[in-house]
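Sequence dictates fold. Next comes a concrete instance:
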Amino acid sequence: MCKDSFIKDVLKVEPPRNRWLPLAVLLAGFSLLSPEAHGQVRPGTSTIEPRIFDLQIVRVSPAENVLEHQPIQIEYRLNIRWSEIGSATNPAPLRGAVCPESNEGTCIVIPDLKPGDYRGRVEARAPAASAQAKVRVQLVAPPPCGGAGPCTVSTLLHLHVTPLQESDWQVIPIAASYSVSIDRFTIQKMRSRFQDDVKISLRAALEEETADSLCSRAGAHFCVKLAPQGSYTTGEGRHNDVIVNVNNVEVGPFNLIPEVSSNLAFEYDIFNLGEPYGQKAAEEFFNNMSELAAGALNAIMNRNPESSGESSGTSGQKRNPSSGTSGQFDKLDTWAHSVHGLAKCDGPVAGDAILFLNKSDLVAPSPTLDSATRGTGKFTSDPKSFEGADSGPGCGENSLYVVVWSVTRLSWQP
């Protein structure tokens, strides 16, 4: 018996019926050891893609002075090459699209993802305000629309698409836009005997700028001075509360990047001013009020609540996040005695200064600009009562006014 016959008969070894089987086993082992050598594994599946993708963001525009949720343009570069399996086979054409990762904007359709360089630009929406907001694009298949596109990104939410590749994050600073307004006041007791003629001033300041510099800035609307709100009476004897919705007392917009831009401070004062004044007396009063307002804003900004993470009023009271951010002035009669040249029953009936920290900290003991407005786009203060100073002879009793103000996030979207 020959040697080959012995091996075949005794060991019962059969030659392989398929001469390509050892090669297939070898390739399969190579595939398990090095999938990237021949293709990419699609996210969320075990499918081996015969294409290798390299998706990069080239530029985001605008790159500066960006407001949250505004349209932005993202330029991308997509490089596609065959993997080893793709080179050895004839892959079927594959349609895809480059889309922003957010749910708003447009996708650019690529009819056939064959090897080559692809450059384009997609429209997206800037994310929420942050010092380091992140944007990126992704390659998906199939495209969220038929034809050549472009497609609306929101259709991705309703279709089954497979992400093929994501770019790295691109980090850009994005601001939120805010305004401050006095919303309403309630007169529970008048300062005058018969009626109060109400005028309101509202001034804002950033930490690196004074209120006067903001007030004098051309084309800006950062100060309101003595805006008339009408004449009101609570009646004689038994008083009836009078609730007044305020008109045209709003300052802003302030476009602020969290953690980067300055903190925002504002001061308001409400006066009963029913007597006529000459030009000289009126100028002296305006100058006097500007100095007092600047002093209040300077005091609140120098209080430096950053160590405690608080937003606070001039009283320095610690603030429960659910109870409003302002505290009263130490004493309203301090203002009453500091304002000179007013006649008869005229004088201050309410006033406050508030500092909002421009932070993103959601666990701060008091709300910041970002945390206070992130949920609904608006923060409304709790009503605050102001008991006035003694009026002159023949006037009413000590005034009692209640004031509500708000900060609105103009750039907010649900």
